[in-house]
Design brief:
The complex is a heterodimer of chains A (229) and B (80). With 229 residues, chain A is an alpha/beta fold. Chain A has five helices and eleven strands. Classes of the chains: A alpha/beta (229), B alpha+beta (80).
């Protein structure tokens, strides 16, 4: 699997993504600076976490208009899988590749801990190694992860099976107690209509080695490595 | 010409920062403070001399970058 990880000024999880990809595929992903206008021929594009452009204006808003993003949008349209994690998810929303927006956490606090995550759909390139209903433990590290969209958009996402993950308690209950940041309908990750774009706030790349405390995120990268080998 | 742009959260969109400001005002002893909403104010210098063209351009800037219309409204005022 050949992968490109886009680096924006202020990205900080790009090496974690590279490590996670290498653990699953044995291959080193290529880092691509945001000012490039072209991407190498790759099977997967990842937008990593961080604080691109210092979260100026709105999280992800400036990065969404970086030169490289025209090419990312083009490739996504051609069906190339795109994964956006944390700030990457925020950038995907601001770029219009995914609907909705990420607001300040309802608690106003920056949250940095493992959260419960329920797999909603296993029929995607990203989630095929999970079973629907699996409960994962994956870290989050964000101040603005509170997913918001109008009720019609939320209904569409649910109706089309495009909610990938929801926040839940350790026991797997999808309720207010398990909702880490106040997200609408506990949504933690969503697909685009063709399910080749996944955006999620939790960091699966930081749950890919027993030494990190959880390997809940590894099946996601294993699934990609297997499908895109 | 200068454009003054106000970007504010739409009604119904949770504004925890506005809430926190409201609580702080209350703590400071300011009574009778109702709902507080926080927004952004942006000034843009424009070379354009034609007001209609300038307004159209700034509206496009708002739609494309300055505001996220999923959650925000904007107003444009031209001065000079």
């Amino acid at each position: 699997m050949k992968a490109a990880v886009v680096v924006f000024p202020g990205s900080n999880r790009e090496h974690d993504i590279v490590d996670a990809i290498e653990r699953s595929s044995g291959q080193k992903a290529q880092l691509v600076w945001h000012s490039e206008r072209d991407l190498p021929k790759v099977d997967l594009i990842v937008l990593p976490g961080g604080f691109s452009y210092g979260d100026y204006l709105r999280t992800g808003a400036i990065a969404a208009h970086s030169p490289i993003m025209s090419e990312v949008k083009k490739r996504a349209g051609q069906g190339v899988p795109v994964l956006g994690v944390c700030n990457g998810f925020q950038i995907l929303c601001e770029s219009g590749l995914l609907p909705g927006v990420l607001l300040t956490n309802a608690s106003l606090k920056f949250i940095c801990r493992n959260v419960g995550l329920k797999v909603e759909h296993s029929d995607s390139l990203f989630t095929r190694r999970y079973n629907a209903g699996d409960v994962l433990s994956v870290p989050v590290a964000h101040g603005m992860g509170n997913y918001f969209a109008d009720p019609k958009t939320l209904d569409t996402l649910e109706g089309e099976g495009r909610v990938a993950f929801r926040y839940c308690t350790a026991e797997g209950e999808v309720n207010a107690e398990g909702n880490a940041n106040g997200s609408a309908r506990n949504i933690a990750g969503i697909f685009n209509a063709k399910k080749n774009v996944l955006g999620m706030m939790p960091h699966p790349e930081n749950a890919t080695d027993p030494k990190l405390g959880s390997i809940s995120g590894k099946p996601l990268f294993d699934a990609l490595a297997e499908a895109l080998a | 010409m200068k454009a003054k742009v106000h970007v504010t959260l739409k009604n119904g969109v949770l504004d925890p920062q506005g809430k926190a400001i409201g609580h702080a005002l209350d703590t400071l002893g300011f009574k009778g403070v109702g709902d507080v909403r926080q927004g952004k104010y942006i000034e843009i210098e424009l070379a354009e001399k034609d007001r209609a063209k300038a307004e159209a351009a700034v509206k496009q800037m708002c739609e494309k970058l300055l505001a996220n219309t999923v959650i925000e409204n904007y107003t444009v005022e031209l001065v000079g």
